[in-house]
């Protein structure tokens, strides 16, 4: 259901419902509600009521309702001691309810980074969005969306630190680049409350450098054959008389990276040879770009897989006799192993059956130091038959992706080489002028959309809409765009800085009377305070003058007083 349709339905279904008949929903990405903020909202509700109705839908086979959006208003109303609340009753599916809940909450200003990440992830998993459409829907850059999505890979302990503002977004962005094993070690050794050598408060660049130094060269974390590493002079175990525990660390990063990339490429090729129906994909958050580049150069298609993908089950480890104290314990472990293997084989057979039937797609995900088998529900045609994509369509999709890769590589290389180009002598052209306006449009205010021929109901400007605007610029449009850009930059005005001076100059030109009223109000307050300060200064000066006029005792009198004492 489109937003406008929902709003139309909403206007016809506003009713007053008992708070006792309303239940929160698991769809809401917001899990934390600030008590102080809720208390303030509760006070407002006591005085003015709920200004905007919440959204609910009926719970099947009951007289109760489930919240679709507005849980914060519901909680504050309960806190305020209200009995009822204005609500919009919506007749929508689970999918529509979840999308509305997520979308409505993402547009709030107080959503935490973790809540935002989980919300974006839910929308991706719905299959109705990709990163690009999310960026357009919420007026964010694609890099912003991808960075937020990375937060879903944080372990709970670190996610909680980010949730409670004990860890900055920039630091969390560095940590989430690594797998759970490294995250757990980083947390236990450097982020847990009260640990010696805490990294809390460090800059993101410092944390990144520390992780790179302390955690990424440990040979134990890599799966390639480390036979040669055992005697390598760059292995820290061979750099001193006393060996470190484990495999040691590699002090020659270039060699470590090459061995790891070669291992990943070899394993990926082996998987493709053994299972031709498997699709190679990159891990969006913990991948290995060099391995991906090498595989693409070899002619393999590597997809950018989005959304959650379950992994193949882990094969149970067979028990060894030397791991147990008694024969009885060993035999029990063998029985448990047999049951685990039966369950493992059954699960693998079920996955393979679904893959053969075209119900799911199998993927080999390229991670930082391993290849992981995973799967995802099969993509469907745009048609009505609902059948899995055909081999021809799969090849066409591969060809399309190859073309995308060619463009991506062209853009990446051009971004680097453009820095070397000599652009100082050529005349600034009309096409470049339009490019400037394209970027300035990022700060266009919604109230000016109609002035530029854009529907006022459009939530954000897409790139296509921006290109349409710059292709038909008028003098008025240019003025509006430039001034909105200036107004956006005036937000950086502080006290007496240069931006503040420019802001006041701009205001004198465009709203002199309003500025005069503003200035007059604050000048009046200042004059009163200034007058009081002057009065206090005058009193202090008078007192100092009186003290100066009092006769001071002579030196002989002081000596006489000291002798008498």
Automatic annotation (TrEMBL):
Protein origin, superkingdom: Bacteria
GO biological process: chromosome segregation
InterPro entries: Chromosome_partition/occlusion, HTH_ParB/Spo0J, ParB/RepB/Spo0J, ParB/Sulfiredoxin_sf, ParB_N
Gene Ontology terms: cellular component: chromosome
Keywords: Chromosome partition, Coiled coil, DNA-binding
Residue spans of biased composition, Basic and acidic residues class: 537-546
Composition bias, Low complexity: 554-565
Ranges in a coiled coil: 327-354
GO molecular function: DNA binding
Region (Disordered) residue spans: 537-565
Domain ParB-like N-terminal: 15-106
CDD domains in UniProt: SPO0J_N (cd16393)
Family from the record: Belongs to the ParB family.
PANTHER family named in the record: CHROMOSOME-PARTITIONING PROTEIN PARB-RELATED
Protein name (record): ParB/RepB/Spo0J family partition protein
Source organism (scientific name): Candidatus Bacteroides pullicola
Taxon lineage: Bacteria, Pseudomonadati, Bacteroidota, Bacteroidia, Bacteroidales
């Amino acid at each position: 259901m489109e937003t406008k349709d929902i709003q139309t339905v909403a206007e016809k279904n506003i009713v007053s419902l008992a708070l006792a008949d309303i239940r929160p929903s698991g769809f809401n990405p917001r899990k934390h509600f600030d008590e102080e903020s809720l208390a303030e909202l509760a006070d407002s509700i006591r005085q003015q009521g709920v200004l905007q109705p919440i959204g609910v839908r009926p719970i099947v086979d009951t007289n109760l309702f489930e919240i679709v959006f507005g849980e914060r208003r519901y909680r504050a109303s309960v806190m305020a001691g209200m009995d009822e609340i204005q609500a919009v009753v919506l007749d929508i599916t689970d999918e529509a309810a979840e999308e509305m809940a997520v979308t409505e909450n993402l547009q709030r200003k107080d959503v935490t980074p973790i809540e935002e990440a989980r919300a974006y992830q839910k929308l991706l998993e719905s299959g109705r969005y990709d990163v690009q459409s999310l960026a357009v829907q919420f007026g964010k850059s694609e890099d912003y969306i991808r960075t937020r999505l990375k937060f879903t890979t944080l372990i709970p302990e670190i996610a909680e630190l980010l949730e409670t503002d004990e860890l900055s977004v920039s630091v969390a962005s560095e940590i989430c680049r690594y797998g759970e094993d490294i995250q757990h070690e980083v947390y236990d050794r450097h982020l847990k409350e009260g640990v010696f050598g805490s990294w809390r408060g460090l800059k993101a660049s410092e944390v990144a450098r520390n992780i790179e130094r302390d955690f990424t060269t440990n040979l134990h974390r890599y799966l390639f054959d480390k036979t040669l590493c055992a005697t390598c002079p760059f292995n820290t175990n061979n750099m001193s008389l006393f060996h470190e525990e484990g495999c040691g660390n590699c002090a020659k990063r270039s060699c470590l990276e090459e061995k790891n990339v070669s291992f990943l490429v070899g394993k990926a090729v082996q998987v493709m040879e053994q299972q031709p129906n498997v699709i190679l994909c990159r891990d969006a958050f913990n991948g290995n770009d060099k391995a991906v580049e090498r595989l693409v150069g070899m002619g393999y298609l590597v997809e950018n897989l989005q959304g959650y993908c379950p992994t193949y089950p882990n094969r149970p480890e067979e028990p060894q006799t030397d791991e147990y104290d008694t024969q009885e314990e060993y035999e029990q472990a063998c029985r448990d192993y047999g049951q685990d293997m039966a369950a493992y084989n059954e699960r693998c057979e079920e996955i393979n059956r679904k893959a053969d039937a075209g119900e799911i797609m199998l993927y080999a995900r390229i991670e930082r130091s391993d290849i992981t088998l995973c799967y995802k529900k099969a993509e469907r045609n745009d048609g009505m038959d609902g059948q899995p994509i055909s081999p021809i369509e799969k090849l066409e999709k591969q060809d399309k992706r190859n073309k995308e890769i060619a463009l991506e590589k062209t853009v990446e290389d051009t971004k680097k080489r453009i820095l070397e180009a000599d652009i100082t002598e050529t005349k600034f052209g009309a096409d470049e002028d339009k490019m400037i306006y394209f970027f300035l449009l990022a700060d266009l205010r919604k109230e000016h959309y109609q002035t530029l021929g854009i529907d006022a109901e459009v939530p954000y400007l897409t790139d296509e809409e921006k290109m349409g605007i710059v292709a038909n610029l008028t003098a008025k449009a240019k003025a509006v765009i430039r001034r909105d850009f200036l107004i956006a930059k005036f937000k950086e005005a502080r006290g007496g800085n240069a931006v503040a001076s420019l802001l006041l100059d701009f205001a004198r030109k465009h709203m002199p009377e309003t500025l005069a009223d503003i200035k007059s109000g604050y000048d009046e307050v200042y004059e009163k305070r200034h007058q009081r300060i002057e009065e206090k200064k005058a009193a202090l000066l008078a007192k100092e003058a009186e003290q100066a006029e009092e006769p001071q005792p002579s030196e002989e009198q002081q000596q006489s007083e000291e002798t008498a004492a």
